[in-house]
Specification:
This protein is of the alpha/beta class. It has nine helices and 16 strands. A hairpin with a 5-residue loop joins strand 8 and strand 9. It is globular. The mean pLDDT is 97. Bound molecules: NADP nicotinamide-adenine-dinucleotide phosphate.
């Protein structure tokens, strides 16, 4: 069985992807594992867990020469030096230590300059998209892409950089995940969801199950110099529409606060992604329906 290293394996996306891939790869998950319950779930699902701190740079426990490294780690302390070191230098140092045969680096469509409802392909201008809510995020993600692209050429390491839009799904704990799950929690608390005035706020949400399905093909598509692709759902969805959909399904009320202190819509072309790994298959209403079901099941457990 091929070995796959997965960083950020305790995160919202990484855990679900690692567990989904554990039946066809020997998955070695890398993170700090501060939450023992997540580590238990991963180990029960067949993922070998190796503690690693991307800031510290000690990767002595990480196996070398794996078939692939999939990087879902992200550090969002909003401290500039720390976030640049962890996200950009950290992946460079890890690649140097682990020398995988292929690299899939998860970036973000938050690297694009804000462009309203313009559909962005991979050549669109980059910018400081997330400044209003996470000052270091976009710049640290751009910096990480550049480190990865450089390591790709220096080490002749076939690499894919995949810019993820809005992931969502249901975790192995049965709880909703991703930004839409955060919106559910806000609506449950009676809080208005912030919406950028540059309406409509369009995104391409993608079910984490679709991300897991596409990982092997995106590793196969890795090249020197790196292949850059968006990683997103096929449907454009307005943030207000998905909140209203979730609220209706969950017996909540969606209210909105129009403010420039939030990120605006980011909607992307999936043409290159389709050519590399095929389209995302889950329709957003089906996927968000499962989020709503998970939310309602969790509420029932809480009420008992
Ligand atoms: N969620 C979104 O809406 C979204 C949207 C677009 C793109 N993305 C991208 O998708 C990827 C996954 O995001 P996510 O939402 O799943 O992230 P997340 O839930 O915040 O998880 C972050 C992961 O990074 C690990 N990590 C943090 N600090 C670390 C350190 N110092 N050393 C080693 N590992 C560390 C965490 O593990 P420990 O804490 O256990 O160390 C965790 O596994 C990221 O590249 C993110 O930028 C996410």
């Amino acid at each position: 069985m091929d070995t796959l290293l997965v960083t950020g394996v305790t995160g919202q996306v990484g855990e679900v992807v690692a567990l989904a891939l554990a039946d066809r790869y020997h998955v070695v998950g890398l993170a700090r594992f501060g939450d023992a319950a997540v580590r238990e779930r991963l180990e029960a699902g067949g993922v070998e867990c190796v503690p690693v701190d991307l800031v510290g740079g000690d990767f002595s426990g990480v196996p070398t020469g794996a078939s692939g490294l999939v990087n879902f780690a992200v550090v969002k302390t909003q401290k500039w030096d720390l976030d640049l070191r962890a996200n950009a230098e950290g992946i460079g140092l890890l690649v140097d230590a682990a020398r995988p045969q292929r690299l899939l680096h998860c970036s973000s469509t938050g690297v694009y300059d804000p462009a309203g409802s313009t559909v962005l392909d991979e050549s669109a201008p980059l910018g400081d998209n997330h400044r209003a809510i996470m000052p270091t995020y976009s710049i640290a993600k751009i910096a990480a892409e550049e480190v990865v692209r450089t390591m790709c050429r220096v080490l002749q390491l076939p690499t894919t950089v995949a810019r993820l839009n809005v992931p969502y799904g249901v975790g192995p704990d049965g709880a909703p995940r991703g930004w839409p799950a955060f919106h559910l929690a806000m609506m449950e608390a009676g809080m208005p969801v912030p919406v950028h005035p540059d309406r409509p706020n369009l995104f391409n949400p993608v079910d984490i199950a679709d991300l897991a399905r596409s990982v092997p093909a995106l590793l196969d598509a890795a090249t020197v110099p790196a292949t850059i692709t968006n990683w997103a759902g096929e449907e454009q969805v307005d943030l207000e529409e998905w909140c209203t959909f979730l609220a209706d399904r969950c017996g909540l009320t969606a209210t909105f606060e129009t403010t420039a202190s939030t990120i605006g819509g980011v909607t992307v072309s999936t043409e290159r992604m389709r050519s590399l790994c095929g389209p995302a298959e889950v329709r957003w209403r089906d996927g968000f329906g499962r989020l709503a079901d998970a939310y309602l099941a969790g509420r029932q457990v809480g009420e008992k």
